[in-house]
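== Sequence, C-alpha cells ==
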Amino acid sequence: MSHKYKVKQMVRLKQPGISDARLSSASVYEVVRLMPADQTGELSYRIKSGAVERAVRESEIRVA
C-alpha cells in the first residue's frame, strides 16, 4: 500500500474539529512526514500549519 500524499504537499482537513475552528476551518497544512499504517491498516501522516502539528489518517485529509 502506498501513500496518496507526499511530503511537502499541501492538504486540508476534510472535517475540521472543534480545536481547528480557532485556526480557521480553511487552514492549509503541509505534509511533513509519512507514517506507517495504523492498527486498522489505514495510512497516516504528520501535517503542520504554523506551530500546529498533528497526526491524521489518510481519510481525514484532502488536496488543498
